Amino acid sequence: MLADSYLWLKAFHIVFMVTWFAGLFYLPRLFIYHAETTDEPSLLRFEIMERRLYGIMTIGAVITIVFGLLMLWVNHGLLQQPWFHAKLLLLAGLIVYHFRCRNWIRRLKAGERPDGTRWLRWFNEIPVVFLIGIICLAVIKPGYIWTAGRPYVSADSSRARSRSRSNAARQRRGHQPGWGGSPSGQRHGPSSWSARA
Question: Does the pTM exceed 0.85?
Answer without folding.
Answer: no
